[in-house]
Specification:
Layout: E1 20-24, E2 31-34, H1 35-45, E3 48-53, E4 60-64, H2 66-83, E5 89-94, H3 100-115, E6 119-125, H4 134-147, E7 152-161, E8 164-171, H5 181-204, H6 215-223
Parallel strand pairs: 1-4, 5-6
Antiparallel strand pairs: 1-2, 3-4, 6-8, 7-8
């Protein structure tokens, strides 16, 4: 086996002690052969015999440079992780007597969080004697959930924990990457230009050079 000081995750070469293995590779056909023969074949090719599926009968091995194999595995894991949507939990804090302007501001932020695919954990904080308004806080959270029902589903109903009453919402659809303002502006400009061109073409009337020009008149005359 070629030098590799990393901690081994797979059995390699002489560590494979079963009598026979199934070998696979880029330039060989799948075949079951004695392990000794597989080791000799790997040595002739200047690569390693790497056990990739130990629970198969017989175990499946690849003829490959072990360092290259580890690199490929790490690359695949990185690509898979990049494709996964990272879900964060965004917190929004209310007071039991939150004003309408503040409520609307926080509702807008919650909509943005949900559109990005994140969860929203809204809570009402009862400071001092304001705990007497816990029913009012519950009503506020239920209103919040109702105003977001098109974007979110309730994951947990309002519950009081100490001086905080929580409500958790999760998005109904996976988040999509937000478009930059520049891209939105460009798309809007293109749509406006297209609409302007269509309006100008409609104002000019039918194109006399079009193969369909006068088709309606010809069909009407034929019917007469």
């Amino acid at each position: 086996m070629k030098g590799d000081n990393k901690k081994q995750q797979y059995r390699v070469n002489e560590q494979i002690r079963v009598p026979e293995v199934r070998i696979v590779g880029e330039d060989i056909e799948s075949a079951v052969i004695p392990t000794r023969e597989a080791l000799r074949l790997a040595e002739d090719k200047g690569v390693d015999l790497v056990e990739i599926s130990p629970n198969a009968q017989p175990p499946v091995c690849r003829l490959i440079d072990y360092s290259k194999f580890l690199y490929q595995q790490k690359k695949k894991a990185k690509e898979l992780k990049a494709k996964q949507v990272k879900v964060e939990v965004k917190e929004i804090r209310f007071g039991p007597q939150t004003g309408e302007a503040d409520y609307a501001f926080k509702l807008k932020h919650a909509q943005e969080f949900l559109n990005d695919g994140n969860k929203v954990k809204a809570y009402v904080f009862f400071k001092g004697r304001s705990i007497v308004f816990k029913e009012q806080g519950e009503v506020l959270l239920l209103r919040f959930a109702n105003d977001l029902e098109e974007l979110a589903k309730v994951e947990s109903m309002p519950s009081l924990e100490g001086k905080k009453m929580f409500l958790t919402l999760s998005p109904k659809k996976a988040g999509q990457p937000k478009k930059s303002q520049q891209k939105r502006d460009n798309e809007a400009a293109e749509a406006a230009a297209k609409a302007q061109r269509q309006a100008e073409e409609a104002a000019k009337g039918p194109n006399p050079n079009s193969p369909f020009a006068g088709l309606a008149e010809k069909l009407a005359a034929k019917e007469e």
